[in-house]
């Protein structure tokens, strides 16, 4: 089905846009504000309506509002008023979701920065401390259910939002933090000191970019780790690089891509077999919707990352003869970014230390898709 630009628009213009476009545009929070700030009496706004001369089986035309209509969670979460030019939609949306997603969390000052850290259990928990590290472009919110159930099982749990992500500080590059691997490592070590994590602990890592940095930090600090659990993280040089991170590294396109207000939820859904429920999508969207800082933090981190070199460090660093601590690889087999073969290849590199647990029904973020199965695997593995 094709469309043509006509005016004036009907009052339900936005709601009539195609929900099956195969090439949705990146649409920023700033652009959304521009759209919603037009007055009712302002100039007529162009709207996509069907061209009478086109056939039904033609390909969809470019849809500038694709992020609203094409993404299932976004379609239910970001809805324009009946009159698209009505003011206040973005502000109302932020007001609706701004207090969501902070379960078990509080702010912790570490060095120059303020981290948002989730905590369950207590330092006296009988089974030890577990640190959960998220990947890009998400946040520690993904671990909320796993953390709750792990503390019920007797563990003391922490899950920080990396600097630049979630609810933690997002400093501008050049002002004390440039989003390099070395800086992420240094700030994480400072945070551990502030949290009072001095004894060896259990570590759980998932995801791209900062998730990988969690593993390279581990290779430099083996004495601080009791056991390591890895959920769907690039582990070998054959690990694919998702399109999002490739786009972020392209001049101009990267600057545009990083300001997509629904980038995180779309990334999650694209790597899984499931659509995020509205209340979850709200939380993943909130940092990117509320300011430009998280997007530019992700942009800087992606530009400075060497994905293949980092994957090579991880593959060789955990190979037989280099690492002797127990490793659990709990892998969502429906991951659309990282195939099961990556986990199997990693296990073959160190069969004596690596235990592979395949999680059916889970995708790139098994802690979000099926937290109960992740908890079962962790409890069995962390037995001491």
TrEMBL record:
Q: Identify the residues that the record assigns to the AB hydrolase-1 domain, covering every copy.
A: 129-237, 300-369
List the coiled-coil residues: none
| GO BP | triglyceride catabolic process
Compositionally biased residues, Low complexity? 1-24
* Molecular function terms from GO: triacylglycerol lipase activity
Query: Mind telling me which InterPro entries this protein's record contains?
Result: AB_hydrolase_1 (IPR000073), AB_hydrolase_fold (IPR029058), Carboxylesterase_BioH (IPR050228), Epox_hydrolase-like (IPR000639)
For the region Disordered, give the residue spans: 1-31
Q: What is this protein called?
A: AB hydrolase-1 domain-containing protein
């Amino acid at each position: 089905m094709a469309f043509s630009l006509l005016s004036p628009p009907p009052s339900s213009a936005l709601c009539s846009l195609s929900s099956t476009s195969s090439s949705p545009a990146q649409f920023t929070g700033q652009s959304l504000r521009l759209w919603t700030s037009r007055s009712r009496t302002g100039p007529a706004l162009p709207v996509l309506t069907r061209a009478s001369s086109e056939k039904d089986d033609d390909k969809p035309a470019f849809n500038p509002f694709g992020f609203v209509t094409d993404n299932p969670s976004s379609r239910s979460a970001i809805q324009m008023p009946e009159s698209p030019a009505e003011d206040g939609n973005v502000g109302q949306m932020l007001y609706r979701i701004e207090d969501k997603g902070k379960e078990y969390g509080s702010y912790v000052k570490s060095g120059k920065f303020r981290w948002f850290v989730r905590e369950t259990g207590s330092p006296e928990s009988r089974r030890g401390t577990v640190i959960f590290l998220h990947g890009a472009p998400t946040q520690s919110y993904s671990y909320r259910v796993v953390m709750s159930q792990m503390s019920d099982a007797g563990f003391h749990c922490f899950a920080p939002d990396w600097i630049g992500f979630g609810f933690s500080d997002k400093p501008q590059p050049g002002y004390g933090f440039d989003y390099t691997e070395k800086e992420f490592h240094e700030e994480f070590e400072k945070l551990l000191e502030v949290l009072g994590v001095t004894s060896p602990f259990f570590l759980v890592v998932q995801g791209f970019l900062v998730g990988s940095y969690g593993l390279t930090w581990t290779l430099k600090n083996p004495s601080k780790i009791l056991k390591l659990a890895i959920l769907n993280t690039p582990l070998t040089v054959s690990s694919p690089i998702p399109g999002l991170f490739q786009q972020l590294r392209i001049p101009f396109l990267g600057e545009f891509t990083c300001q997509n207000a629904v980038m995180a939820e779309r990334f999650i859904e694209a790597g899984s077999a499931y659509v995020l429920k509205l209340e979850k999508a709200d939380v993943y969207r909130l940092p990117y919707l509320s300011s430009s800082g998280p997007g530019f933090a992700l942009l800087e981190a992606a530009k400075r990352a060497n994905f293949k070199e980092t994957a090579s460090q991880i593959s060789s660093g955990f190979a037989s003869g280099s690492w002797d601590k127990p490793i659990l690889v709990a892998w969502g087999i429906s991951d659309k970014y990282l195939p099961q073969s990556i986990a199997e290849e990693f296990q073959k590199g160190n069969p004596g230390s690596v235990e592979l647990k395949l999680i059916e029904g889970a995708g790139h973020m098994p802690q979000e898709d099926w937290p109960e199965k992740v908890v079962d695997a962790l409890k069995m593995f962390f037995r001491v």
